[in-house]
Amino acid sequence: MHTEDRWAPMRARFWVEALAGGLSALAFLVTLVWHDWLEIVFRLDPDHGSGALEWLIVAALAMVAVTCWLLARAEWRASSPA
To answer: What is the pTM of this model?
Structure first.
């Protein structure tokens, strides 16, 4: 099977999981580098400057990204020819 043919049989589920993983990873990196985006964008400070909420968001986004990528990988492997 050629590389070009490999992408054709992918179900929508693979693309949704891969995209969600990529977006979660991007949000993870943004939050890791620019940790006060929550206060700037939403104009609120739920943790009163401690940074605890930002670290919770970083951890949650990392877990979502890894989970989505693992699900996409399982979908990829399930679609591979026997």
So the answer is: 0.74
